[in-house]
Structure formats: C-alpha cells, structure tokens
Amino acid sequence: MALTSYYITMNGLSPWALSATNIFENDELIPLFTKSVSGLIFNIYNERDSLFILASLPNGGEFLFRAAFTPIGEIKISKFNKSPDGITFYLTAEIGEIQIDISFLKQTVPVLRYITTLKPITDLFIPFWPRDVIVPGKNDNTRQKTGKIHASQVGTRSGIIYCSSSKPKSGSIFYLQNLTALESYCQQTQTSCSGVVGGDWPEMGFALPPTTDKALSAGKNVIIGDAIVAFDLEVPENEGAMVKQFLNLLAEAYLALPKPGTKYNHWPEILEKGLKDLQENPGCWSQLGGHSYLNAYVSDYRTPPEIMVQLAVLLPLLDYVEWTGSSLEIMKKIKEGLPSFFDQKLKTIMRWHPAAAKDLKGEEEQKQPLVMDSWYLHHPLLNLSRLALKGDNEAKKLFLDSIGFAIKVAHKFNYEWPVFYKMDTLDIVKAETQPGKGGEKDVPGLYAHVMLQAWEITHEDKYLKEAEKAAKKLEGLGFDLFYQANNTAFSAGALLRLFKITENKLYLDLSYICLANVFKNVQLWDCNYGYGKNYPTFFAIFPLSDAPYTAAYEEQEVFCALHDYLNHAQGVDILPSITLLIAEFIRYMNERAVFYYPPMLPEEMLSKEVKTGEVDANLWIALEDLHDGWEMSGEVGQEVYGAGNAFGILPRHYLKVPGEEFMVYVDYPINRVQFHRDKSLSFKTGGSDKLSCRMIFVGLKSERTMAFQVKVDRQKKVLKGENMKDGHVAYQLQGNQSVKLSWKKL
Hints:
The chain is of the alpha+beta class. The chain has 15 helices and 35 strands. The strands form nine sheets. Strands 5-6-7-8-15-12-11-10 form an eight-stranded antiparallel sheet. The protein has a seven-stranded antiparallel sheet with strand order 1-2-3-4-9-14-13, covered by helices on one side. It has a five-stranded antiparallel sheet with strand order 27-28-31-34-33.
C-alpha cells in the first residue's frame, strides 16, 4: 500500500513554535557548537528563551529540538564542557540553573540524546511547557515543510513520536522520551507521564505535565527531559517499509535507552503457590450440571462459565505437565466440562455455557445469551486445535465440529469482523470499537491461525486457502491493526507460518506489521512514582490499544506467542530488530509477571472497589490490572483465567538437567538446546549480542556442592559466576551467543 495519503500539509503553530521558527529565518545565526554524524549536521544555538539543537538532513530537511526553555527572560551560558561524543552546557535563567547533556551516538543510524536538568531558584509551579520538537519552515507557503506523524504515545505507553518528512523528502525520526527519568518530577508534583509526548506536525514531542497543586522544590536538581532521537534518511514509500523502519529505529533508540536491572524470581516456588490456590480456593470454581468450571474472576458466581476461561488455563497447565512429566487432577476436571459448551443446533462451541446463559443479566453488551465477541469464538478454537495436535481426540472432535460455523461467520462478514454479533442470526450488535474505527481488526490474523491449525490437523487445502484470504485483509491497516495484544501476537506467528508455507513475502511483511503494532503498545519506562514504586513496569504490554492498564492474561499470552514466533523463525532471515525486541520483552516479563500477584504488592495500593468478584490480597491469583502509579490497581478483579502466568514461564526458561537436582534458568529465549553424555549442556541465546542476559543455576544447596564451567563462543576464558542467596549461581551472557556449560560434583 502506498503512503501518499499519509503526508499532510503543515498545521497551525503555537506562539512558542512560531517564535522558534522566526528565529531560524535568520540565515546568519552563528552556532555555539557543530557536529557532523553520518551525513547529518547538528548545530547548537542559544537564542532568546531556548537552547536549540538543529539537525540538518542531506536532502534539505530539518528538525529543531528545544533542549532548554525558560518562560521568562533569556537563557545565559555559564560554561560548557566538550567530550568526544558531545557537549554539556551549564545555563542560568530566571527560573534557576539548567544543565544540558548532549550526546551524538553513532550506532547503525545516527542517534541524538539530550538530558535536561533543572535546579529551581524557588518552589516552582509549571502550568505550561512547550513541546520540544519543531519542523522549522518559512512564512512563504510554497516553502512550507510537510510530513506525517505515523505513531505517537497513547496513555502511559512509551513516550514516542515516529514521523517522516515528505517535503522535502529527507528522512524520518524516531523520538523516545525516557520517562523513567521523570520520576522525581512526577513524585514532587504528583503528576503522571500519561500522554506527555504527542502533538501534530510540525510541532510535537514532549511537554512537561503541568503542575498546579504541587510545586518543584527549590534548590533540588530534577530531570525535566531525557530525549533520544534516532534518524533515518529514508522516507517509507509503503506500509511494509514503514513498519520495518519503525521496528529498526525503535531498536536503535532502545539501545541508547537506560534500562533497569532485573531481579531473579524463583518461579518454581511461585508456581506451587499459584497452583495450590487455583486448585483449592473455592472462589476460583463454580459447579454446574455435575461438572466443575473455573470462574473468570475470583468469587464471580454471577457470570456463567466461559469456554475461553477454561482453555486459557488448561493450555498453560498442559505446557507445565509436559515439562514435568507428571499429571494434574485439575486438568481432568477442566476437560470433562468442555463438551457442554457445544451447541448441537448451531454446530459450534459457544462462549457461555448453554445451560447457564439464560442467567446473563445483559449489564454489558456482550453479556447476553447469544451475543459473541468476535475474538472469543476463535481463541477457544485455537486452544482446542492445540490440544488436538497433542493427541486429544475429544478436543479434536469439538474443534472440527465447530470449524464450519467459524468459516460461515467469516464469509458472512467478508473476513472483517465486527465487535459483537448474534450467534443465531449473525446480525451485528456492535460494528465498531469507536465511530469510524472499524471492528476487531486483528481477528483476520487470529482466524488465519485457526485455519492453519485446521490445515495441519486435516491436511485439507481449503483451510489453507481460508487462512490466506483472511490474512490479506490485514493489508493497509498500518498502526490501526491492533485490537487486542495477544491476538495481534498470535496473528504475527500465523503470518510467519503462512510465509514459510507459501513463500509469499507479503505474509512476512504482514507479520512485521503485527509485531510493530504490539511494540507500539508497550511501556518502555519504569513508573517509579506513587504506587508505581512497588512494582516494575518496564516493557509492559497493554491489552487493548486504548486500555489504561496492563493485564496479566494478555501479557502472558503475548509472552508465549512471541516465544512461538521465534521458534517458527528458525531458518528465516527475520529483522534483527525483531529478535532484539522480543528477547528484551521476554527478559523483563520474567521479572514483572510476579507483581500481578497481590501478595507481592502492599495492600494499600489495591482498589477497595472491584468491578467483578472480589480481590483477596493473600491469594496467588493474578490481578487483571496494574495502573499508573497514582491509581490503585485490581479494580477490575482477580482473573482466574490469568492463572497460566507461571505455567507459561517455567517450561520456557528452566532447563531440567537429567539426573541432577539443579536446573538452568535463562531469562532470554534460547534455542539449539542439547544435553551431552559428558555432563555438559549447550544452547544458543536469542536476541542481540549488543545486549546481555542472565543464566542462573538454581536448586543448589546453600553450600556449594557442584563446580560449573561456562564457556561462550566469543571468549576463550571461562566465565566467572556470582554466588546469589539460596545457593543460586548466576552468569552474565550476551544475546545471540553459543554457550556450553559443564558440571561436576565436588
């Protein structure tokens, strides 16, 4: 799809942007400092109320960055210090002292970073602050510079702007504000980082959240901006080029971003706590027709059993028992109730248990007996197909008996699904998520995944053709494809599989579009203010494109889906930026996921009002929702269907060593795992060699009883381990690294 319509003329300007552009109409301005990086020229100017960095691109394009600003008077330079990579300015203004640290990084693309620190001269309110990125243009309309913002921050997601300059056709930038650095500002002023990066072409970027009730403290240094900007001299000509550029520039900005460390969580112990509560707590279960069914939320007895809930827990449990080689009675209980969801008249599984659907009160649009949320039909089918491929004949029958109805619905809606529809008539109940926004746009990818599963089970080409027809409906959606995170991630894997089967490059590009949508909806910062001090948020993924919180269930499924994506990508030359970003999300998810459990959080941050069911602060069942640091969490409920959290992590990150009591934990995805007869093990880490991960020997006694030797492909020397508490031993590895480890008893 061409991007001609993506480019627009200039919008209006604020007085602060107009003032800046007027300054740069003067061609005789003398820069304080000049730096050339890979064909870009950076000039720094101190003019009137601002210190500016002007980036000039070879084809005539310009981006102006306001690194410092004072609302009154002028900024004066006290001194400056040069370094090989940049320059630091020390400034004075009527509002206080300002320090600007400017770095020019030469990565795969040029990267600019500027950090602004303010020491207020008095207790200071900031009711307004101008945005820090301007595309300067002349007053002559024929010389106006035009372009397009492709993506920007929504809510508390990453503080990004991704845009391209079309007149002149000079290049693109990816702007990332390190919102973690604003923790002191937000804590002092009790403000939030939600929506602080945005704007319209040509005035965009970051503006400080306004302060009206709480002031910045006099004489205390506080960071008021930390911007990272990655440049590319290409302007994307089509959708495929746009999402590849987005992913690549995001990875470059990410490399320059300060990243928090992680702490090891002992998931075997966490899993046992969660399994015990899942099995034994009566709030997790309801009884109907002689069978036991999992509630969607703890102590939610009003809502009838849902098939999605049963399967969303069953599949991670299956991963776990395959890893342990054991069995769980709870799985038998869940499976026994599944056939009851099949409707003989409609010839399909239903969302709600047919015997209890009449009890629905209709307080929400979808809580009516025959109303289906589009993705809710396909997600259970996907999980039934997974069971079928593992040899479960009952699941296979339910899946194949229902697949015809799913195809009927797809044809009715021409592979473009609404939000809600009636199961018996296929009448649309709700067509669009919001007026003009369309329906559940990632469902074609989820449907394609289901059809690929049917093709794999039956070997009938009609299902492969269905998958291709649906997949092509994702073309042209750009960054509007995302409806729900887990389904978009599943879609990415399905499209990668379609590419491998058909060798049609379109499907590989569409898989990248899905991944770009997922990574646009992440939070690349740690909310260390308010309640956010109690839990990490770095690299969290939001469940919906407009959701105000992150959610355990969707994150856990994205986690598993991206693991699967990497497995399918073996032997495929995918973008290095994708392997980097997936590996980093997985690494941070291994730490963050434990904080969805209420016992890990202070009780005072848990909402006293709960939408569905109850929240038990002592129960190891995940909260649905973690919010911005000034908001309480758990207000939606404690989701039983998010109980697969630990069961998804353990089998993917802990290697059981045959004949030994210890296990090997790696926080990155790994592949090519081989156990050798000489008490050794080899594998390769995923991700990028530009970043590091951690391997830990766990399950050891407190006193060292084993000796380990760890060798990697880029170092001749043996790595040295670090002794941790509980007898664990940790090693730092690089991504994309071959590792061989051996052990012997002392």
